[in-house]
Design goal:
GO cellular component, one term: plasma membrane
Protein name: Cation diffusion facilitator family transporter
Structural class: mainly alpha
Number of helices: 8
Subcellular location: Membrane
Membrane topology: Multi-pass membrane protein
Low-confidence stretches: 1-7
Strand content: 5-15%
CATH class of the largest domain: Mainly Alpha
Helix content: 55-70%
Number of strands: 3
GO molecular function: zinc ion transmembrane transporter activity
Largest sheet: 3 strands, mixed
């Protein structure tokens, strides 16, 4: 692979702090997911079992995120000229789909429990959910601190997961307390459905945002950007115009610019003017611009 000092973008990320945080979070999450699963079986709590499934989905998601992070530090090669940074987005997409699938399954199980209720061990449910609350507070603080150090899509999605877990733990504590004082076992089912809806919303949000990136789409107003660039002096027309996201932070632009027939000596100035517009007004730093001239490029068709 030919490399030069004039290449402005590395197409890889060295994120040692995020890597360390993911290792720590993964070990903690595996440990607690097993504790919640066993506790859910012993206490017959569907809400606790549901939260353990969510935690196991976190384990898988964190595993994907860690693999993506390890690959994203690899430099581009002859085959993968853009590197492996987009693996972070793919990991987030898989993560979101898992959340959606698990939430739908738990909602189904919740409705089944309406017809087949089971006795719940209040003490086990309350103890484990309280430990879960403390665990999720700790992990949320760790991930929030990590985001301040290094911005990473996977860390963002993991943080959302654990915020959801935090809400789940609070919900389980509330439901177990209500069950203790009223003996209304159905509260566990209702709470599990509420938690599942929260999971579904989070999974949908992650899936949607990562899908936009994987489809090389954008959330920006492309018509506005197009018209703004056309105002640059010396440009007659723009075609093959594309704006897309590489990840949640980086936006790219590509276009063919047809120069005015009288413009023959300020090609590089025009390119620089376009770059300034993209950077200052839309925070787009990475762009590909092909110049065309009416004198040499036939656009009669």
């Amino acid at each position: 692979m030919i490399q030069t000092n004039f290449h402005h973008k590395k197409h890889y990320k060295i994120q040692s702090y995020s890597k360390k945080i993911l290792y720590i979070t993964l070990i903690l999450t595996i440990s607690f997911a097993l504790l919640e699963y066993i506790g859910g079986l012993l206490s017959n709590s569907l809400a606790l079992l549901g939260d353990s499934f969510h935690m196991f989905s976190d384990v898988i998601a964190l595993g994907f995120s860690l693999i993506a992070l390890l690959f994203s530090s690899k430099k581009p090669n002859k085959k993968y000229t853009f590197g492996f940074v987009r693996l972070e987005v793919l990991a987030a997409f898989i993560n979101g789909l898992m959340l959606v699938g698990i939430s739908i399954y738990l909602i189904f199980e919740g409705f089944m429990r309406f017809f087949n209720p089971k006795d719940i061990d209040f003490k086990s449910m309350l103890i484990i959910s309280t430990i879960g609350l403390i665990f999720n507070i700790v992990v949320t603080i760790i991930l929030t601190k990590s985001l301040k150090e290094e911005d990473n899509l996977n860390i963002q999605s993991a943080l959302w997961h654990f915020l959801g877990d935090l809400i789940s733990s609070i919900g389980i504590i509330i439901s177990s307390t209500i069950i203790y004082f009223t003996n209304y076992q159905i509260v566990d089912v209702i709470m599990s459905i509420i938690i599942s809806i929260i999971l579904f919303k989070g999974g949908y949000k992650i899936t949607k945002s990562s899908f936009v990136i994987l489809m090389e789409a954008t959330t920006l107003d492309t018509e506005e950007i197009y018209n703004k660039i056309k105002e640059v002096e010396g440009i007659a027309d723009i075609h093959e115009f594309h704006i897309w996201h590489t990840d949640t932070n980086e936006i790219n632009a590509a276009m063919h610019i047809l120069l005015d027939e009288y413009e023959t000596s300020h090609d590089y100035k025009i390119v620089e003017d376009v770059k300034i517009v993209l950077k200052e007004e839309y925070d787009i730093e990475h762009c590909f611009i092909a110049l065309e001239n009416i004198k040499y490029n036939d656009h009669s068709l």
